[in-house]
Amino acid sequence: MATLQRLGSPVNGNGSGAATGDHNTPPTSLPPTPPPTLALAPSSSTDPRSHPPDLALLFDLIPLPQLILSPSCAITRASARFLADWAVTVDQCVGRDLLSFLQAHLQPLGDPTGHIAASIDDAISSRAVRTTKAIYRHTSSWIARIIPVFKEDELLAIVTEWRESPVALADQELFRPGLSNDEAFRILVQAVKDYAIFLLDTNGRIATWNTGAELLKGYKRDEIIGQHFSVFYGKEDLDIGKPGMELEICLREGRVEDEGWRYKKDGTRFWANVIITAVYKDGVHVGFGKVTRDLSERKSAESRLIRAYEESEKLKSDFLANMSHEIRTPMHGILSACSLLIDTPLSERQRDIVNIMEESGQVLFQVINDILDYSKLASGSFSIKSDIVGVSSTVASVVRSVQPTLPPAVHFELFLSPELPKSVQGDPLRYRQILQNIISNAAKFTEKGSIRVRATVQEEDEVSYLILTEVTDTGIGILEHATALLFTPFTQYDITTTKQYKGTGLGLSIARSLAELMEGRIGYRPNPDRHGSIFWFTARFKKIKNLEQIQDWRQRGFNPDGSPLEVPSAGALVRASELAASASTKTLLLVEDNVINQKVMLGLLRSLGFKNTALASNGAEAVNMVCGKPAAYDLVLMDINMPILDGHEAAARIREHGIRVPIVAMTAYALKGDRERCLEHGMDDYIPKPVDKQNLIKTLARWLLETRDYRLPPIDVSADNSVVPASDKVQPNVEVTDKQIGKDGDTPVIR
Amino acid sequence: MPDFGDHVDNTIFSQILEMDESEADRDFSGPLVLNFFDQAIETFQKMEEALAEKDLDTLSGLGHFLKGSSATLGFNKIRDSCQVIQQYGHQLTVDGSTEPDENVCLQKITDALKAVKVDTKELDKAMKKFFEVTE
Questions:
Q1: Quick one: DSSP state of residue A427?
Q2: E strand or H helix that includes residue A145
């Protein structure tokens, strides 16, 4: 390529472009033809008077560093300014490939050629001007504008225009393409919208604020910078000095994480997860970095989950409770009816059948109880009651109850340590239940030998005892591989097919749960002396604080050995309902002088179904009423101590009139002789005062349902007019109905 | 069951409560207890009169009378004091042996009457609270 020359002559006025020429060409008036490689657009000068300068000259004089490239990116021309700025000569650049030229003349840091080439390609393919990224040369960075020159479809040249910008000293270390580190991080932090990321100074005052912080907390940057970060905390946290504590911990540990309520500018609160990190520069503490996340969504999801769970738990335990009642009630009915049926005259075949019914019923009942217990235990809604427990008496009682089921070749041995406390605090029913389970198991699986039950105090402290109970049998034992599953629910170990172990397989599992609820454990080990098993369990019982608690148990309805005080036996339930059925047809006479007692008795009788009860306030009135209407009353309830005429006298007088109405004395007398006196005076029966409901039911049933009506003609027509009535003379209830201690010792009815 | 301490035998009293329509509507036990306290106050008055006249017989009868109703409701403390009055009214000690000295009897009765009035007042207060009766 010819080098450019300065032309001194003025521009030709012909309007043609700048002429080029070389030394050897004399100045002619030939119109200058543009060199073939230079395809410049026609002069853009709008001044018709200006003479278009020599293009080559123009190009040279342009005060911009410029390079013209061939379509293949070889440098074809360099402006003077370029040569000057880059301190290169024409030979060094013209003719050379641009990229190799650049590589040679640039600071060898990074490879700029990649992006320059990309920019050029981009410019060519899009036929548009492109700007490259910066490349670094000495103390400056250069960017280039890539200008492709097309004539129709042909790429004629690429013009590159270079621009310099001084690089700050500080960035010198970061001669990397793109952003500097700081700038990059700043943009990062600023742009993040989901997290509040900001800096605090060493005192906790807010120094920076990002978009996320603004969105999350509601404060704008200028509102919040300089304020203390405790402005986000709620009253409770401020009261306990939480912000300060957090900074303290942060300094100590380097970081602190917290979850809690934070408050926005508008006062609403959100559940935040906050991480504070201590920031150091050159070893000096300069502040804190804080990142806050909004976890409100998660928290509300959590509480929704918990609510749903609690609701389902409640449904479960309601279901259990209801089912429990619904199932047990008819079971009671079946068992009651069965036991009554057994008491009636039956043929042998019938008796066999009924026995089967009862046995199956008992087993079913046990199974149901097991399942309900197990469900309750599994759902965690089982609670241990706190009552009085008599350890020794419970053990003895259970042993007694299992005794009848023992095979003849097996006997019980009972060892009760003298150190066992007389009474302790615990759940008597559940303690009994575990004992019952283990001991009856032993009985089931022992053919001959012994079952030894031993209760001792394993541990004692100031407030409680840990009682150990061991049951050692000489039975069939348990195979080693089965021991692991012993206390697992729904597993039963049955060594032979002939022995049918009735049950759910839940007994031991329930026993274990109960023992654990009583802060104890349960376990098994083989009998070392002989073939057999040792089942043991521990349970913790609190010591009794004072005597009052012992007296309390009387009022709770249970004996310390776990057996209920009043057994509304199967018979009683049926009696009560039968009585109620016929009560509406019966007329009673109540003889009682104290108004309060009258009211109570009437209420009691009403509750049993007796709607027509006549009232007399003293003995004389009673005699008048009964003798006046001899057949009016089905039964007379007579108080003894009354003014005017007492009960004894009244009864005697009624009898003198030959009226055989059943008279039941209500007496407060505790002395034996007094009861007998009642009978002597013609009373048929007596119940102690204050009157107990169950007792009343039993007595009324006896005289109203089981006794032949006194008004009916005598059955045995005997010659002698014996005063002894044909109605059955029933032996009265001789038991000590100290209703608290229930031994339902019925004497058999004499018929 | 509320705790009336040793004033009330809970087993007996709860039987009374069982006859109520419901726990919210104590239409049976409420008026009954109210009646009892009325009866008690009346009886105490009569006892004071009989005491002034040193009428042991009447005192015994009155004691027996109130003993009956208090026992029925399970108000054991009141019952026991009435038992004392009943016995000493017959010139007997509480375990049945004779007490010939009238003055001793009268003194015992006086003491018992004093005690039972205090106990009754206490129990009345507790009962009113239980039945949520405003004075």
A1: -
A2: strand A140-151
CB of A245 closer than 8 Å to CB of A233: no
* CATH value at residue B105: 1.20.120.160
User: Would you state the pLDDT for residue A168?
Assistant: 53
Q: Which of A625, A638, A626, A648 is nearest to A710 (CA)?
A: A626
Of A597, A691, A693, the CB nearest to B69: A597
Question: Which range of residues forms the domain containing residue B52?
Answer: 28-130
Please indicate if any CB of chain A lies within 8 Å of the CB of B41. Answer: no
Contact A294, A271 (CB under 8 A): yes
CA dihedral for A369, A372, A376, A379, sign (positive or negative): positive
Predicted pLDDT of residue A108:
54
Binary contact (B69, A692; C-beta < 8 A): no
**In A321-463, where do the E strands start and end?**
387-389, 410-416, 424-426, 449-460
Contact B69 A594 (CB under 8 A): yes
Inter-chain touch A739–B11, beta carbons under 8 Å? yes
Q: Which domains does chain A have, with CATH numbers?
A: 2-36+52-172 (3.30.450.20), 182-294 (3.30.450.20), 310-376 (1.10.287.130), 386-555 (3.30.565.10), 570-740 (3.40.50.2300)
Residues composing chain A = 751
CB contacts of B28 in chain A (<8 Å) are 603
Q: pLDDT band for position A497 (50/70/90)?
A: very low
Nearest to A594 among B19, B68, B74 (CB): B68
pLDDT tens column, A277-293:
999 888 888 899 999 98
What was the pLDDT predicted at A300?
86
pLDDT, tens digit, for every residue of A356-387? 888 888 888 877 887 777 777 776 667 777 77
Residues A593, B65: C-beta atoms closer than 8 Å: yes
Tally C-beta pairs within 8 A across A and B: 62
Long-range contacts from A550-553, C-beta under 8 angstroms, 24+ separation: A550/A388, A550/A423, A552/A388, A553/A387, A553/A388
Cα distance from A607 to chain B (closest Cα, Å)?
7
pLDDT for the residue A49: 56
Interface test with B, best of A551, A554, A600, A639 (most B CBs within 10 A): A600
Residue B67 confidence class, pLDDT cut points 50, 70, 90: very high
- Cα distance from B19 to chain A (closest Cα, Å)? 7
Per DSSP, the three-state class of A271 is: strand
Domain count, chain B: 1
